[in-house]
Specification:
This protein has 8 helices and 4 strands; from the N terminus they run ααααααβαβββα. The chain is an alpha+beta fold. It folds into 2 domains: 2-99, Orthogonal Bundle (Peroxidase, domain 1); 103-176, no CATH class. The chain has a 4-stranded mixed β-sheet with strand order 2-1-3-4. The chain is elongated and about 70 Å long. The N and C termini lie far apart (45 Å).
Amino acid sequence: MIAHRIYAKAIFGAAQEHGKLAAVHAQLQELRDAFANAPDLTLLLENPEVDTRVKADLLGRLAQGADELVVNFLKLIAEKGRAGEIAAIVDELDALVAVEDRVLDVEITTATDLSEDYFAKVISQIEGASGRKVQASRKVDPDLIGGIVLQAGSMRLDASVRGRLDRLRQDLTHARS
C-alpha cells in the first residue's frame, strides 16, 4: 500500500538523517514482532471506535525506553489513524533498509532439506555472483524431484529436475508443430 511506503520512507529518512537507522529499525522490528504475539493489542489498534489519542498514548507507553524517533513515529501514525498498520509499515521499512544495505532477499526451494554446510555454500555462491549480501529463506518442495529453484524478487532461476523436464516437454511439443 502506498501509505505504508510513505510512512516507512519518512521514518527511514529521519533515522538515517540522525545516524540512528540501525537502532530505529531494530526497535521497530521488535515492536512489530511483539504486536504479532499480542492479537488483543492488534485488535485494539485496528478498532476505528477507539480514539486515536488513546492509541497514541498506548503506543507511547509501550515504546517507553525506545529511541525518541520511534516513540514520536508511533504517536504520529496513531494520530493519523494508522496504528493498526504498524506491521505493514515496518515491512516496508525492512525493504528500504535491505536496499540501503545492498541485501538481496532470496527464497531457495529444494526437493529435500539442505544441510547447513551446503546451504552456506549456496548462499556464498549467490553472494559471489550478485556482489551483494544475501538474506535467504528456505522451502522444501518434494515435487521438484531434485535441483534448486531461486526466487529473488521477480527473477526466478529454475534449475530443478521438474523444471528441466517441463522445458524438455515444451521443446518436444513445439518441435512437432
